[in-house]
Protein: Isocitrate dehydrogenase [NADP]
Organism: Desulfuromonas thiophila
Amino acid sequence: MSKIIWSKIDEAPALATYAFLPVVQAFTKGTGIEVETKDISLAGRIIANMADYLTEDQRIADFLAELGELVKKPEANIIKLPNISASVPQLKAAIKELQGKGYKLPDYPEEATTAEEKELQARYAKCLGSAVNPVLREGNSDRRAAASVKAFAQKNPHRMMKPWPAPGQSQCRVAHMEEGDFYATEKSVTMEKDDVIKFEFVDAAGQVTVLKEGLKLIAGEVFDSSVMRVAKLREFYAATAAEAKQKGVLLSLHLKATMMKVSDPVMFGHAVSVYFKDALEKHAATLKEIGANPNMGLGDILNKLDKLPADKKAEIEADINACYETQAKLAMVDSRKNITNLHVPNDVIVDASMPNVVRDGGKMWNKQDELQDTIAMVPDRCYALMYREIVEDCNRNGQFDPATMGSVSNVGLMAQKAEEYGSHDKTFIAAGKGVIRLVNSAGAVVMEQAVEQGDIFRACQAKDIPIKDWVKLAVSRGKASGQPVVFWLDENRAHDAQIIKKVNKYLPEFDTAGVEIHIMDSVKAMRFSVERIRRGESTISATGNVLRDYLTDLFPILELGTSARMLSIVPLLAGGGLFETGAGGSAPKHVEQFLKEGHNRWDSLGEYCALVPSFEMIAANEGNQKAAVLAETLDAAIGKYLENQKLPSRKVKEIDNRGSSFWLSLYWAEALAAQSKDAALQARFAPVAKALSDNAAKIDQELIDCQGSPVDIGGYYMPDDAKAAAALRPSATYNAIIDAL
Ligand SMILES: NC(=O)C1=CN([C@@H]2O[C@H](COP(=O)(O)OP(=O)(O)OC[C@H]3O[C@@H](n4cnc5c(N)ncnc54)[C@H](OP(=O)(O)O)[C@@H]3O)[C@@H](O)[C@H]2O)C=CC1
Ligand SMILES: O=C(O)CCC(=O)C(=O)O
Ligand SMILES: [Mg+2]
């Protein structure tokens, strides 16, 4: 029996799973393939981590740890749906929901002072931020639009693109720091031998504090350190806000407080405290007393004001509101509810937010609910430069055309917690002026960084085997596609300079004959790629972990309308496969819509596409011919699904995710009934195809009639399975056919 693990996760894709997984389980019955869920949702991870607070029957196993082991084995075959990378406000909300369900969990201690509180905070911190992906990603990533999906997108271009103003007329620009950012301060070495590193802070008086001990590095590993100088960061925020005010454009900030859970909330907090400086400094003592923390956004500060007497609360609110008058106008997340870009650190996530700026013609939403030019602050040049380049390109050449534009796919260095995305346990906020130094087992200083109080120090690793595998994957994608491969590496960035050496060392080991290969910094690489897509040509970007994340949302959103439609394969180093569904997130807005009006606009194309290589892997590794047939027929069904445009609509009372999955299952059953490679499958699915097809109009209607009113699924972070299943499988006619399989 082969096993496919289907991750149980959060929000919109979790809702979609209630509709689609029963279909997959029914279709695979009797094929030697078992599809099993493992709960790695935020709620599930909290429960697993806090078992000692819970009753026996409330406990669940640590499935994330289990899967973390599985990915190191050749039999791993995991369909990984996007999960919540929780910010502190999300973690608190999830804990509250669980407490309401009778889980006797302690509150999350925001201000940990006692040893007990600190321990609790550390335990909960395991559930914060990007806690799942780095554990499962024991391989590099291959993200691209399947040929059928790209062809569909060109034939049926999405209508979300808004025109850019005439050349040179947009006031949109990407603002970044010119000094004192991670880009400027980065130092990097390649380890000559295995070693163990100690992190020390040495204050101005020479007093040494150990920050971390026992970091094991192996020979060939690239090891970096860098610092974000917060004084420079604050100057940058203030100057950019002044510029936005003077130009009368919206000010916006784009970070990744979810994934970069240690550094980015702090960078976010500085933006909040610079923008609302007058109010927050005036009331600093009171705000400190009530535990208001700018790192959690203005929204959290406003909530904490409830702890104060009404007159004091009103006074501080008035002072905060006065800042809006003297400062630049902020981009809005929800203008009706007056939620700004600075309210919640996880509302604006750069990989999804910057593509929308490009898509919307260099604009974001203002308070009047209109689109307006924005100055987009992306402080660190490691990533800002490429966004700057694409924005400038659009300001010169206008909007892209999804009907004709080529594609930029990605091969990303990601395995074994590569680079920034593995840096959380090596990120420290400097306690004072001094030096943070990295000392090896012989007592020698490997690298050191001067810091001022509050500076964000970060160290990153990238292991040699993953780097070599990444080069190999890039070459093989170049060969298979005939497209040029561009390594986005900047010799002026210390880390990239080390990686360039490795790329040049490993390229000759692979068969690169006929493959066009370039190494370019992110500005040149973006220009090269964008010039090509405007000519309808496609390019492979081979990047580090962060650019992987950013580019695999940017181009898909422009090309396909959403990164949900991507094929996202992680060939695991140990031989297994992790098949991620799409490249985007968990679309919290979709859940909101579903609860309000019973329409789930989540597009599961990513899930459908991911299943194909998952079946193919079983066919290849175990010679299971039924798996090969399932893969081929599903692929054909996806083609038909696209051709017949059965994608979910954004509007209530039109086809939604459930209807989409129904049509996909009909086409899949038809393809199984039509094939002749496996007679048993053919015989089994012929009546199913007929029943689904005979009842198609009825089922389609049932899946629309059920929409239009609020839905109760018994929870947000931990829905009630029975309620959710009922809500997401509302067609009795359809269920009867599937359940009879
Ligand atoms: N691999 C993973 O596990 C990932 C997890 N995340 C997590 O997801 C959460 C939300 O992230 P965020 O960046 O805000 O946004 P999302 O990527 O969830 O959504 C941004 C927008 O993209 C569109 N979208 C995304 N997926 C789909 C889909 N399947 N079908 C249709 N439209 C889609 C929606 O646009 P519209 O409003 O126009 O419908 C949505 O509002 C966070 O907790 C984040 O950490 C994020 C990225 C990857
Ligand atoms: O793990 C996360 O937080 C998000 C991952 C992500 O955005 C990506 O891989 O594209
Ligand atoms: Mg992403």
Q: What stands out?
A: Residues 48 and 62 are 5 Å apart (CA to CA). The radius of gyration is 26 Å. The chain has a mean pLDDT of 97. The chain has three domains: 2-138+572-739, 173-182+231-400, 185-229+429-458.
